[in-house]
Amino acid sequence: MVVIRLSRGGAKKRPFYNIVVTDSRNRRDGRFIERLGFYNPVASGASESFRIAQDRLTHWEGVGAQMSPTVARLVSQAGKKAAV
């Protein structure tokens, strides 16, 4: 099954996550099909903490990819902020 999930990067105590499309059998930080965006939970000041290519997300959902619960939460929160 194809999933949209987070892949961890960054240094110790400084996490940075790429939002990737991958096969569910691959390792968390292993091979992926496409990078859709990023999430930086420790972003401060004017730096951007979340970005996703909405058109590519829609494409992958259209062909049957499932979002992980965390990615679904992040996308819905970003949608609420955009609506305000």
UniProtKB/TrEMBL annotation:
Gene3D superfamilies registered for this protein in UniProt: 3.30.1320.10
Protein family (similarity comment): Belongs to the bacterial ribosomal protein bS16 family.
Protein name per the record: Small ribosomal subunit protein bS16
The species this protein was found in: Glaciimonas immobilis
HAMAP family given in the database record: Ribosomal_bS16 (MF_00385)
Single GO biological process annotation from the record: translation
Keywords: Ribonucleoprotein, Ribosomal protein
Molecular function terms from GO: structural constituent of ribosome
Pfam families in the cross-refs: Ribosomal_S16 (PF00886)
SUPFAM superfamilies for this protein: Ribosomal protein S16
GO cellular component, one term: small ribosomal subunit
InterPro entries: Ribosomal_bS16, Ribosomal_bS16_CS, Ribosomal_bS16_dom_sf
